Amino acid sequence: MIAIVDYGMGNVASVKTAFQRLGYEVEITDSVARLEAATHVILPGVGSFQAAVEEINQRNLVKPLRRLAKEKPFLGICLGMQLLFDKGYENGTSDGLGLIPGEVNMIETEYILPHIGWNQLQIENNNQPFASFQDKHVYFVHSFQARTEQQYLVTTADYGTKIPGIVQNGHVYGMQFHPEKSGEVGVDLLKVFMEETNADRGQLA
């Protein structure tokens, strides 16, 4: 079972549908017990970094999410990806989950913000599992970006500056774009995430 974390700030229904298209059992929950029962944890998110941290704290999910990310495959989507990092500077300074080294700041670009629309992925670090997605278009909606070390970059996009598209630290992954809004390419990206993480854990029960 895949568990999608419900903390009141995410396009959870569309994310659930995307995984269901791949044939997986999916549950939307804020129950720690249900998250512990899952094989994979998905952290979506739409909104501001600070507000998301407050919602997660109110549900007493910070420590459980940090622990679960050490135990099983974990994927953050859009704002959920930004929350994987150490700190965010949207509406003040807030601590993230600290699962991937780095910070989240406003995009520094001459282009109009927010970054909304389709953009091409560029493969970083010769990442083989995602190599077939070179130049594929995915859908972004954001004004803030993660700044992290090159070793954690799987894909990037160009928006007058390099924008992390997919990041990875062990079995913790993040996607800044919305795979659930990116058509077949988005579903295929989720499929690769599941295949790669299942290879480490065995097939889903």
TrEMBL record:
Q: Does the keyword Glycoprotein apply?
A: no
Lyase among keywords: yes
Q: Locate the Glutamine amidotransferase domain: which residues?
A: 4-185
Q: Which PROSITE patterns match?
A: GATASE_TYPE_1
Subcellular localization is given as: Cytoplasm
Listed EC numbers: 4.3.2.10, 3.5.1.2
- Which pathway? Amino-acid biosynthesis; L-histidine biosynthesis; L-histidine from 5-phospho-alpha-D-ribose 1-diphosphate: step 5/9
What would you give as a GO molecular function for this chain, any one?
Answer: glutaminase activity
Instruction: State where it is primarily located.
Output: cytoplasm
Q: Which UniProt keywords apply?
A: Amino-acid biosynthesis, Cytoplasm, Glutamine amidotransferase, Histidine biosynthesis, Hydrolase, Lyase, Transferase
* Cross-referenced SUPFAM superfamilies: Class I glutamine amidotransferase-like (SSF52317)
Against Gene3D superfamilies, the record matches this protein to: 3.40.50.880
Q: How does it assemble?
A: Heterodimer of HisH and HisF.
Q: Which HAMAP family match?
A: HisH (MF_00278)
Record protein name field: Imidazole glycerol phosphate synthase subunit HisH
Question: What organism is listed for this UniProt entry?
Answer: Gracilibacillus orientalis
**Gene name in the database record:** hisH
